[in-house]
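Write out the 3D structure for:
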Amino acid sequence: MVGTFINVSSILAGSFLGVSLGSRLPEKMRDTVLHGLGLVTTLVGLQMALETQNILFVMGAVLVGGIMGEFMQLEEGLQRLGRGLQNSLSRWGTRGSLKSFAEGFVMASLVFCVGPMAILGSIQDGLSGDYRTLAVKSVLDGFASIAFSASLGWGVAFSAVSILIYQGALTLFAGLFASVLTDPMITEMTATGGIIIMGIGLKLLQLKEIRIANFLPALVIAPALVALVPRLWGFLGG
C-alpha cells in the first residue's frame, strides 16, 4: 500500500498549500503545471502500452471495453452520481462554510477516486508492489488538490480518507488474485491501462476530450482474453 500512502500524503500536502495560498496562485501557472503533467502522463502511458506482447489483445480489450462502457453509460452515470452526492451533502447545512466543505470533499473524492489510474495503480501495487502509476497519480492529485482547496477549503483534505479506503481496499483485494492472474495476463492488462492513461494525458493537454471512464471495462477484458483465446483456439484447432 505504499502507493496509496504516497497518494494520501500528496493530497494532504496539496490541500494545506491550497488553503494557505488561496486564490493567489496564478491561473497561467496552474495551466503550465497541468500541461507538463499531461506530457509526463502521456509518456508513462506509452511506456506501459509498449509492454504488450500481443497488440491484438490490447486492441480487442479497448474496443470491446469501450463499447461496453458506452452501453453501460459509465461516464454519464459517474457524473450523475457526483451531482447527486453534492446535492445530498449540501442539504446537511445551510451555512456557506458547510456547503463549501461538503462540495470540496465530494468533488475531490470523485476526481481522485474515479479513474483508471486509481484502479490500475492499486492493482499493480497489490500484485507486484509497483507503485509507479500511483506515484504519477499522486503528483496529479497533489496539484489538483491545491487548485480545489484554494476555493473550496479543508473539505478537499478529507478526500484523503476516501483515497485510503478505496485504493487501499483495491490493493488488498488484488493481492488475493496473485495466484489467479498470470504474468501474460498482467502484462496485457498493464498495456491496456497504458492506453487509457494516455487518454488522460490527452485530456490534461486539452488535445481531445475522451470519455475515459467508458474504457474501464477493458481492464477486465484484457486478462480475460489472454486466458480464453488460447483455449478457444485450441478447441477450434482440435
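Residues 2-237 form one domain.
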